[in-house]
Amino acid sequence: MLQAVIGLVSMTDWEEPVDTWQALDEERSALADDLATLDGTQWETQSLCEAWKVRHVVGHLIFGADMKAGPVFMGLIKSGMSFNRYVAREGLAIGASPPDSLLEQFRMTIGMRQIMSGAKPEILLVDLVCHSADIRRPTGLRRSVPEVTLLTVANTMKGVGFPIKTKKRIAGLRMTATDFDWSTGGGSTVEGPLASLILAMVGRRAVLNDLSGDGLPAFRSRM
């Protein structure tokens, strides 16, 4: 899940309304502050991403903030042209650095305005918000992400196919937030806090207990 969802051609400084970039900076800053409170054991905690510990998720976010076309193409070739395999390997490689180094590298992403050609910063925001929760939930950290940020993420991701398959996962269901005025789709209902709906929509089984509705059994079977 990354800006490469949209394109893998070249890098550019994308000119978008400042609020999306500001939201990225706010979420990166908040996560960096939270990471600074973790001890060595917590950096080794299994994240909600099955292939990654907390340190590897941070490595992935560092990687995603500064992707360059040349290395991306070479990485894809080395990974058998599998985007998911490539991203997983990069997260593991960068995440092998010591926690202090990872934190320093991640703080350097604050203020970055780099994105793949053809992509928009909203895709980066989806990646950041979801992966921040992948880190926070298993380590006991808490953050109330601003409503406007959650709405932007939910509205962006509801139509995304590859590689997170949200569009297919929620097809024929009505996803409804219980804490904000947001819903999408039609059919049997799946409802719950918007932050939990977002994580479930990208395939995180750990949040299913936060949800309810007559569409939940069908939704659960698609995870």
Walk me through the structure.
By secondary structure, the protein is mainly α. It has two domains: 3-139, Four Helix Bundle (Hemerythrin (Met), subunit A) (Up-down Bundle); 147-221. It contains eleven helices and five strands. The strands form two sheets. Strands 4-3-5 form a three-stranded mixed beta sheet. Helix 1 (18-35) runs parallel beside helix 7 (121-139) and helix 3 (54-65) packs parallel to helix 6 (99-107). It is globular and about 45 Å long. Mean pLDDT is 88; it is low at 2-18.
Question: Tags for this entry?
Answer:
single chain, 223 residues, Four Helix Bundle (Hemerythrin (Met), subunit A), 2 domains, three-stranded mixed β-sheet, two-stranded antiparallel sheet, 5 strands, globular, disordered N terminus
SSE blueprint and pairings:
Elements: E1 11-13, H1 18-35, H2 40-43, H3 54-65, H4 69-78, H5 83-94, H6 99-107, E2 114-116, H7 121-139, H8 147-157, H9 166-169, E3 173-177, E4 183-184, E5 188-192, H10 194-201, H11 216-221
Parallel strand pairs: 3-5
Antiparallel strand pairs: 1-2, 3-4
The string of secondary-structure elements, in order, is EHHHHHHEHHHEEEHH
The biggest sheet, with number of strands, parallel, antiparallel or mixed sense and barrel status, is:
3 strands, mixed
> Would you tell me which CATH topology of the largest domain applies?
Four Helix Bundle (Hemerythrin (Met), subunit A)
Indicate the low-confidence ranges by residue numbers: 2-18
Percent strand equals 5-15%
Rg calc: 17 Å
Q: What share of the residues lie within helices?
A: 40-55%
| Distinct helical segment count | 11
